[in-house]
Amino acid sequence: MKRFANLLKRPDDLRYAISKGAMPFLRGLVWQLVRLRRPRMFFLGGRTQFVAAWNLRFEGRVAIGAHSYIETSAEELVVFRNGVTLRENAWIQCRSGLNARGLGLLLEERVYIGPNAVIGVGGKIVIGTGTQIGAGVSFVAESHEFHEGSFTTGVTRRKGITVGPNCWFGNNVTVLDGVEIGAGSVVGAGAVVTRSLPAGCVAVGAPARVIRMTGHIGKENPECLTKDRT
């Protein structure tokens, strides 16, 4: 109510909120009613395609931007918890044709993912509460193995990706299969994360390497400042 009262005091902000949210809210409401779901605060951008939506569960307010592709045919439920935002042109794929389904995807509360995200679910992907991710991120929870002289023979590995709570990602970060990123970590723009990162670190580069720690973690684990984690 306080936020609404503040909007009433600022007409330009109120007009912006209406133009930004009214149609996505109505679109989200219709989407839920058509699928016989209990209506929630769901904001849905135009020209978004869903595949296997029966396997997608919302647990509170969710926003998905326009021109997104959301394919959720996974072994487990794909879950978006309260406060999740996926900006425009998000691409989520849990299955390629009739190939094996990915394991699952969990976006915890208040996860924000910027425009043009690519989330390829092979192994399970979990992104922790409050994590903020810039535009152009790629999560690739599957890797092709070299087999019989080629990477195209269909031999794959699926370990999954885990991102702890309250992490921060710059634009155009790529995270590869098998990576775990500890709570409160910062990943710089353009980084390619090929190996796991400790909690409370700052990592940059391709491949990403830790350049410093934040808070008490760096003091307790000074070796993280010099150890090559790439």
Report on this model:
It is a single chain. By secondary structure, the protein is an alpha/beta fold. The chain has 3 helices and 24 strands. It has helices spanning 2-9, 11-34, 215-220; strands at residues 42-44, 49-51, 56-59, 62-64, 69-71, 78-81, 84-86, 91-93, 105-107, 112-113, 118-120, 125-127, 132-133, 138-140, 143-144, 156-157, 161-163, 168-169, 174-176, 180-181, 186-187, 192-193, 201-204, 209-213. A hairpin with a 4-residue loop joins strand 23 and strand 24 (209-213). The model is unreliable at 216-230 (pLDDT under 50).
Task: Describe how the helices and strands are arranged.
Layout: H1 2-9, H2 11-34, E1 42-44, E2 49-51, E3 56-59, E4 62-64, E5 69-71, E6 78-81, E7 84-86, E8 91-93, E9 105-107, E10 112-113, E11 118-120, E12 125-127, E13 132-133, E14 138-140, E15 143-144, E16 156-157, E17 161-163, E18 168-169, E19 174-176, E20 180-181, E21 186-187, E22 192-193, E23 201-204, E24 209-213, H3 215-220
Parallel strand pairs: 1-4, 2-5, 3-6, 4-7, 5-8, 6-9, 7-10, 8-11, 9-12, 10-13, 11-14, 12-17, 13-18, 14-19, 17-20, 18-21, 19-22, 21-23
Antiparallel strand pairs: 15-16, 23-24
